[in-house]
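User: Hey, my collaborator sent me this sequence without any context and asked if I could get a structure. I don't really work with proteins. Can you help?
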Amino acid sequence: MSLDTAQRGHRVSAQDLQSVIEAAVWAPSIHNTQPWWFGTRDTGSGPVISLHADTERRLNVADPDGREMMISCGAALATLSLAIRHRGYEPEVRPQSDPDRPALLADVGFGRSARPTEEVEQAYEQIRLRRTHRGAFKDAPVGAQVLAALSVAAERETVRLSVALSHERVALGALTEAAEQVQLLDPAHLAEAARRYSVRLRALEQSDPYSSARDFVRGQGWGNAKSGTHGVTGVVVVLATPGDGRHDWLAAGQALQRVLLRASAAGLSAAFHTQALEVPELREFIHTRLCRGGHPQMLMRLGVADNDLTSTRRSVDQVRNEELS
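Assistant: No problem. I've predicted the 3D structure and written it out in C-alpha coordinate form, which is a compact way to encode the shape of the chain:
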Protein backbone atom coordinates (compact mmCIF):
# COMPACT_ATOMS: atom_id res chain seq x y z
CA MET A 1 0.00 0.00 0.00
CA SER A 2 1.28 3.48 -0.87
CA LEU A 3 2.28 5.88 1.87
CA ASP A 4 -0.18 8.27 0.26
CA THR A 5 -2.89 6.73 2.43
CA ALA A 6 -6.41 7.66 3.46
CA GLN A 7 -6.52 8.15 7.21
CA ARG A 8 -9.46 9.14 9.37
CA GLY A 9 -11.15 11.08 6.61
CA HIS A 10 -8.05 12.87 5.31
CA ARG A 11 -4.98 11.95 3.32
CA VAL A 12 -1.35 11.98 4.40
CA SER A 13 0.56 12.54 1.21
CA ALA A 14 4.05 11.50 0.21
CA GLN A 15 4.85 15.21 0.17
CA ASP A 16 3.74 15.49 3.81
CA LEU A 17 6.07 12.64 4.74
CA GLN A 18 9.01 14.07 2.81
CA SER A 19 8.50 17.55 4.26
CA VAL A 20 8.40 16.28 7.83
CA ILE A 21 11.68 14.38 7.51
CA GLU A 22 13.30 17.31 5.67
CA ALA A 23 12.50 19.45 8.70
CA ALA A 24 13.72 16.84 11.19
CA VAL A 25 17.22 16.69 9.72
CA TRP A 26 17.66 20.32 10.83
CA ALA A 27 17.34 19.40 14.49
CA PRO A 28 20.31 20.43 16.64
CA SER A 29 22.75 17.74 17.67
CA ILE A 30 25.68 17.83 20.05
CA HIS A 31 28.92 18.24 18.08
CA ASN A 32 26.72 18.24 14.95
CA THR A 33 26.87 14.43 14.95
CA GLN A 34 23.29 14.08 13.60
CA PRO A 35 23.04 10.58 15.16
CA TRP A 36 19.66 9.53 13.79
CA TRP A 37 17.87 7.87 10.94
CA PHE A 38 14.18 7.61 10.08
CA GLY A 39 12.25 4.57 8.98
CA THR A 40 8.96 4.96 7.12
CA ARG A 41 6.22 2.38 6.74
CA ASP A 42 2.51 2.13 6.09
CA THR A 43 0.54 0.43 8.84
CA GLY A 44 -2.71 0.25 6.86
CA SER A 45 -4.23 3.06 8.90
CA GLY A 46 -1.61 5.58 7.85
CA PRO A 47 2.11 6.21 7.54
CA VAL A 48 4.42 5.96 10.53
CA ILE A 49 7.88 7.43 10.92
CA SER A 50 10.19 5.54 13.25
CA LEU A 51 13.07 7.37 14.88
CA HIS A 52 16.26 5.36 15.33
CA ALA A 53 19.55 6.30 16.96
CA ASP A 54 22.41 5.97 14.49
CA THR A 55 24.85 4.37 16.91
CA GLU A 56 27.69 4.46 14.38
CA ARG A 57 27.69 8.25 14.76
CA ARG A 58 27.94 8.17 18.56
CA LEU A 59 31.19 9.56 19.96
CA ASN A 60 32.69 6.64 21.86
CA VAL A 61 35.11 8.73 23.92
CA ALA A 62 33.11 11.89 24.61
CA ASP A 63 29.78 10.08 24.93
CA PRO A 64 30.37 6.47 26.05
CA ASP A 65 26.89 6.05 27.56
CA GLY A 66 25.10 7.55 24.56
CA ARG A 67 23.58 10.32 26.67
CA GLU A 68 24.41 13.08 24.19
CA MET A 69 23.30 10.88 21.30
CA MET A 70 19.90 10.45 22.98
CA ILE A 71 19.60 14.19 23.65
CA SER A 72 20.26 14.84 19.97
CA CYS A 73 17.65 12.25 18.97
CA GLY A 74 15.19 13.86 21.37
CA ALA A 75 15.67 17.14 19.50
CA ALA A 76 14.93 15.32 16.24
CA LEU A 77 11.79 13.82 17.79
CA ALA A 78 10.57 17.27 18.83
CA THR A 79 11.21 18.56 15.32
CA LEU A 80 9.29 15.67 13.76
CA SER A 81 6.31 16.41 15.99
CA LEU A 82 6.43 20.12 15.20
CA ALA A 83 6.65 19.49 11.47
CA ILE A 84 3.65 17.14 11.60
CA ARG A 85 1.66 19.87 13.36
CA HIS A 86 2.74 22.34 10.70
CA ARG A 87 1.38 19.99 8.01
CA GLY A 88 -2.00 20.01 9.74
CA TYR A 89 -2.01 16.84 11.84
CA GLU A 90 -1.69 15.93 15.48
CA PRO A 91 1.45 13.85 16.04
CA GLU A 92 0.97 10.48 17.73
CA VAL A 93 4.24 9.70 19.50
CA ARG A 94 4.72 6.18 20.83
CA PRO A 95 8.04 5.73 22.68
CA GLN A 96 9.64 2.37 21.99
CA SER A 97 11.82 0.21 24.23
CA ASP A 98 12.62 -3.06 22.48
CA PRO A 99 15.62 -5.05 23.82
CA ASP A 100 15.99 -6.63 20.39
CA ARG A 101 16.06 -3.20 18.70
CA PRO A 102 17.63 -0.84 21.25
CA ALA A 103 18.27 1.87 18.66
CA LEU A 104 14.52 2.21 17.94
CA LEU A 105 13.38 5.15 20.04
CA ALA A 106 9.87 6.11 18.93
CA ASP A 107 7.15 5.66 16.34
CA VAL A 108 5.45 8.85 15.22
CA GLY A 109 2.13 8.74 13.40
CA PHE A 110 -0.11 11.33 11.77
CA GLY A 111 -3.21 11.72 13.92
CA ARG A 112 -6.38 13.73 13.44
CA SER A 113 -6.48 16.90 11.37
CA ALA A 114 -5.62 20.02 13.35
CA ARG A 115 -5.08 23.53 12.09
CA PRO A 116 -1.59 24.67 13.15
CA THR A 117 -1.58 27.39 15.78
CA GLU A 118 0.34 30.65 15.54
CA GLU A 119 2.81 29.27 18.09
CA VAL A 120 3.42 26.19 15.94
CA GLU A 121 3.95 28.27 12.81
CA GLN A 122 6.34 30.63 14.58
CA ALA A 123 8.40 27.72 15.92
CA TYR A 124 8.40 25.90 12.58
CA GLU A 125 9.70 29.01 10.84
CA GLN A 126 12.76 28.95 13.12
CA ILE A 127 13.82 25.35 12.35
CA ARG A 128 16.13 26.37 9.51
CA LEU A 129 16.86 29.86 10.85
CA ARG A 130 18.21 28.65 14.20
CA ARG A 131 21.99 28.60 14.38
CA THR A 132 24.63 27.55 16.87
CA HIS A 133 26.89 30.41 17.93
CA ARG A 134 30.58 30.53 18.75
CA GLY A 135 32.26 33.25 20.81
CA ALA A 136 31.01 36.31 22.63
CA PHE A 137 27.63 37.97 22.25
CA LYS A 138 26.63 41.56 21.63
CA ASP A 139 26.11 43.87 24.56
CA ALA A 140 22.36 43.30 24.54
CA PRO A 141 20.52 42.03 27.64
CA VAL A 142 18.24 39.02 27.55
CA GLY A 143 14.92 40.05 29.07
CA ALA A 144 13.36 38.32 32.05
CA GLN A 145 10.15 37.80 30.08
CA VAL A 146 12.01 35.89 27.37
CA LEU A 147 13.81 33.75 29.95
CA ALA A 148 10.48 32.96 31.60
CA ALA A 149 9.08 31.85 28.23
CA LEU A 150 12.10 29.60 27.69
CA SER A 151 11.57 28.06 31.11
CA VAL A 152 7.94 27.33 30.27
CA ALA A 153 9.03 25.74 26.96
CA ALA A 154 11.38 23.37 28.80
CA GLU A 155 8.78 22.52 31.44
CA ARG A 156 6.50 21.14 28.74
CA GLU A 157 8.89 18.19 28.63
CA THR A 158 9.26 18.08 32.45
CA VAL A 159 12.73 19.59 32.12
CA ARG A 160 13.94 22.48 34.27
CA LEU A 161 15.75 25.43 32.76
CA SER A 162 17.83 27.24 35.37
CA VAL A 163 19.51 30.59 34.76
CA ALA A 164 22.91 30.67 36.46
CA LEU A 165 23.38 33.40 39.02
CA SER A 166 26.58 35.44 39.02
CA HIS A 167 28.57 33.10 41.28
CA GLU A 168 27.17 30.02 39.53
CA ARG A 169 28.16 31.46 36.16
CA VAL A 170 31.74 31.88 37.41
CA ALA A 171 31.81 28.32 38.74
CA LEU A 172 30.37 26.81 35.56
CA GLY A 173 32.87 28.74 33.46
CA ALA A 174 35.73 27.45 35.59
CA LEU A 175 34.42 23.88 35.38
CA THR A 176 34.12 24.16 31.62
CA GLU A 177 37.72 25.27 31.33
CA ALA A 178 38.84 22.53 33.74
CA ALA A 179 37.05 19.93 31.60
CA GLU A 180 38.72 21.32 28.51
CA GLN A 181 42.12 20.81 30.13
CA VAL A 182 41.24 17.28 31.23
CA GLN A 183 40.16 16.37 27.72
CA LEU A 184 43.35 17.82 26.24
CA LEU A 185 45.29 15.31 28.36
CA ASP A 186 43.41 12.35 26.87
CA PRO A 187 44.96 11.13 23.57
CA ALA A 188 41.79 9.18 22.70
CA HIS A 189 39.67 12.29 23.13
CA LEU A 190 42.06 14.36 21.02
CA ALA A 191 42.01 11.77 18.25
CA GLU A 192 38.20 11.65 18.27
CA ALA A 193 37.95 15.44 18.26
CA ALA A 194 40.44 15.67 15.40
CA ARG A 195 38.39 13.24 13.30
CA ARG A 196 35.19 15.11 14.14
CA TYR A 197 36.49 18.54 13.24
CA SER A 198 38.29 17.28 10.16
CA VAL A 199 35.00 15.98 8.80
CA ARG A 200 33.27 19.21 9.73
CA LEU A 201 35.86 21.38 7.98
CA ARG A 202 35.64 19.34 4.81
CA ALA A 203 31.86 19.64 4.86
CA LEU A 204 31.91 23.40 5.33
CA GLU A 205 34.76 23.91 2.86
CA GLN A 206 35.92 26.93 4.78
CA SER A 207 38.20 27.84 7.63
CA ASP A 208 36.49 28.12 11.00
CA PRO A 209 38.69 29.56 13.77
CA TYR A 210 36.61 27.73 16.41
CA SER A 211 36.87 24.29 14.80
CA SER A 212 40.41 23.55 15.90
CA ALA A 213 39.49 23.58 19.58
CA ARG A 214 36.47 23.72 21.85
CA ASP A 215 37.76 26.58 23.96
CA PHE A 216 34.82 28.99 23.91
CA VAL A 217 35.57 30.46 27.33
CA ARG A 218 39.01 32.04 27.45
CA GLY A 219 39.13 35.74 26.69
CA GLN A 220 35.36 36.08 26.62
CA GLY A 221 34.66 36.92 30.22
CA TRP A 222 32.97 33.73 31.34
CA GLY A 223 34.34 32.78 34.73
CA ASN A 224 35.71 36.27 35.33
CA ALA A 225 33.69 37.74 38.15
CA LYS A 226 34.79 41.29 37.24
CA SER A 227 33.57 41.07 33.67
CA GLY A 228 29.98 40.71 34.86
CA THR A 229 28.18 41.70 31.66
CA HIS A 230 25.68 39.88 29.50
CA GLY A 231 27.38 41.55 26.52
CA VAL A 232 30.39 39.23 26.70
CA THR A 233 29.18 35.96 28.16
CA GLY A 234 25.46 36.02 27.56
CA VAL A 235 23.06 34.27 29.89
CA VAL A 236 24.27 30.88 31.12
CA VAL A 237 21.54 28.27 31.47
CA VAL A 238 21.39 24.62 32.49
CA LEU A 239 18.78 22.10 31.38
CA ALA A 240 18.22 19.45 34.05
CA THR A 241 15.95 16.43 34.38
CA PRO A 242 14.49 14.66 37.44
CA GLY A 243 16.08 11.34 36.46
CA ASP A 244 19.08 10.33 34.40
CA GLY A 245 17.99 7.50 32.11
CA ARG A 246 17.15 7.11 28.45
CA HIS A 247 13.67 8.60 28.86
CA ASP A 248 15.14 11.66 30.60
CA TRP A 249 17.77 12.15 27.92
CA LEU A 250 15.15 12.07 25.16
CA ALA A 251 13.01 14.53 27.12
CA ALA A 252 16.01 16.81 27.53
CA GLY A 253 16.53 16.80 23.77
CA GLN A 254 12.91 17.65 23.11
CA ALA A 255 13.09 20.47 25.65
CA LEU A 256 16.35 21.69 24.11
CA GLN A 257 14.75 22.08 20.69
CA ARG A 258 11.71 23.81 22.16
CA VAL A 259 13.98 26.26 23.97
CA LEU A 260 16.22 26.89 20.96
CA LEU A 261 13.33 27.59 18.62
CA ARG A 262 11.68 29.92 21.12
CA ALA A 263 15.01 31.67 21.70
CA SER A 264 15.58 32.03 17.95
CA ALA A 265 12.16 33.63 17.54
CA ALA A 266 13.24 36.17 20.19
CA GLY A 267 16.43 36.97 18.26
CA LEU A 268 18.74 34.89 20.44
CA SER A 269 21.40 32.33 19.57
CA ALA A 270 22.84 29.55 21.71
CA ALA A 271 26.39 28.42 22.34
CA PHE A 272 26.68 24.83 23.58
CA HIS A 273 29.18 23.97 26.31
CA THR A 274 29.23 20.22 26.87
CA GLN A 275 32.80 19.81 28.13
CA ALA A 276 32.08 19.64 31.87
CA LEU A 277 29.14 17.29 31.29
CA GLU A 278 31.43 14.88 29.42
CA VAL A 279 33.73 14.45 32.44
CA PRO A 280 31.80 12.23 34.91
CA GLU A 281 33.32 13.73 38.06
CA LEU A 282 32.56 17.29 36.96
CA ARG A 283 29.05 16.42 35.84
CA GLU A 284 28.41 14.85 39.26
CA PHE A 285 29.73 18.00 40.94
CA ILE A 286 27.32 20.15 38.91
CA HIS A 287 24.51 17.73 39.79
CA THR A 288 25.12 17.89 43.53
CA ARG A 289 26.29 21.50 43.95
CA LEU A 290 24.84 23.61 41.16
CA CYS A 291 21.77 21.84 39.83
CA ARG A 292 19.38 21.83 42.79
CA GLY A 293 19.12 18.05 42.74
CA GLY A 294 18.43 17.78 39.01
CA HIS A 295 20.62 15.90 36.56
CA PRO A 296 22.38 18.34 34.20
CA GLN A 297 21.88 17.46 30.55
CA MET A 298 22.88 20.63 28.71
CA LEU A 299 24.91 23.71 29.56
CA MET A 300 24.73 26.64 27.16
CA ARG A 301 24.93 30.40 26.79
CA LEU A 302 22.20 32.52 25.20
CA GLY A 303 22.55 35.97 23.73
CA VAL A 304 22.39 38.18 20.65
CA ALA A 305 25.07 37.15 18.17
CA ASP A 306 26.96 39.18 15.59
CA ASN A 307 26.98 36.16 13.30
CA ASP A 308 26.24 32.48 13.61
CA LEU A 309 27.95 29.38 12.32
CA THR A 310 26.24 27.71 9.38
CA SER A 311 26.31 23.95 9.67
CA THR A 312 25.68 21.27 7.09
CA ARG A 313 23.04 18.56 7.23
CA ARG A 314 22.76 15.09 5.79
CA SER A 315 20.18 14.76 3.04
CA VAL A 316 16.87 12.99 3.53
CA ASP A 317 18.09 10.15 1.31
CA GLN A 318 20.97 9.58 3.72
CA VAL A 319 18.76 9.29 6.80
CA ARG A 320 15.55 7.68 5.50
CA ASN A 321 14.85 3.97 4.99
CA GLU A 322 11.53 2.42 4.00
CA GLU A 323 10.59 -0.38 6.38
CA LEU A 324 8.23 -3.32 6.11
CA SER A 325 4.88 -2.94 7.82
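In plain terms: The first strand starts at residue 5 and ends at 7. You can pass these C-alpha coordinates on to your collaborator as they are.
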